[in-house]
Sequence to fold (335 residues):
Amino acid sequence: MKRSTTRTTAVVATVLATGLLAGCAEELPTPKPEAPVAAAVVTQSQEREILDKVAEVVGKVEKTKDADKLAARLDGPALSIRETQLKVADARGDKEPLTDLSMEMQQVILPSDQEWPRSSFAITVQPKDLTTPVLMAFNQATARDQYKLWGWVRLLPGVTMPQFAEADLGSPAVPEDDESLKVTPKDAIKQYASVLTVDKKSKYADNFADDDLRQFFRDYGKLQVEAINKEECDGSFKVEYEPTKDSVRAVRTADGGALVVASMVSQETITAKEEGCEIGPPTKTTKALWGDADVSNVVEVNYKDMVAMYVPPKDSKDEISLVGYEHVPSSVSNG
Fold:
């Protein structure tokens, strides 16, 4: 028995607001050295050059399918996920699995930190494929390294992004263990992994606003179980998430909170418990990754994931909220 459920992506244009941080200095009666003026350490024109160089590499690799060339301008989770997307696209024979990384931006969030590593962020205009805009994170490891695309997420339909400092002023990075937030960035991703795994049963569920990713798993799991149960095969569905060892990237928002971007891995397991029942991969992508493996009563799908969330400042009454995610199948097995 094979059941196929194809996930569709909702398409809604996203309007993003940019905040301003401004200040004034009092004149002193005697000459003294001027206080440093807050300014981004990367200009908008320099950021544009970075974006163009990354886009050039991504575009060439998409045409040549030589994934080894990606490392020149991609790093960390972005490199791993793009390599996986290229593998899936090749297996399927089409480009639908490839996230649009064409780098036409509507907003940039530039670093103000003098030290390294440095991270910048950018949000694309809506892609030509009418999926939602993409939030990208870039990283420069040292002063001698090139800026590279470190990660990205597709924004949720209709999401309201937090506000940031004006681009020319720059926004400071937020350390993984920063305690000025409701929870530290590192704890936020650990807690969210628990919430994605067991949903409302998680002891951290009250820290997070409900979101599209959690609802997707509820709906998708229900569809899979119902399809199996039509054949009286006693179906079950579960998903398990955990953060990777990659560092978390976080940047300060205008209200003192943080935008946190992090890498995760996940596994979904679909099971027909009744003896003699068999199931196969449920989507076009998982079928492409399945190959010629024998069917059994179990389908396990492994994913590489990125999530971006807004974490409010410590004294805020707001919940932590998801702003975007990327969920890329990397392998499929029969358990």
In short: The chain is about 25% helix and 25% strand. Strands lie at 105-109, 118-124, 134-140, 148-155, 235-243, 249-252, 258-272, 298-311, 321-333. The longest strand covers residues 258-272.
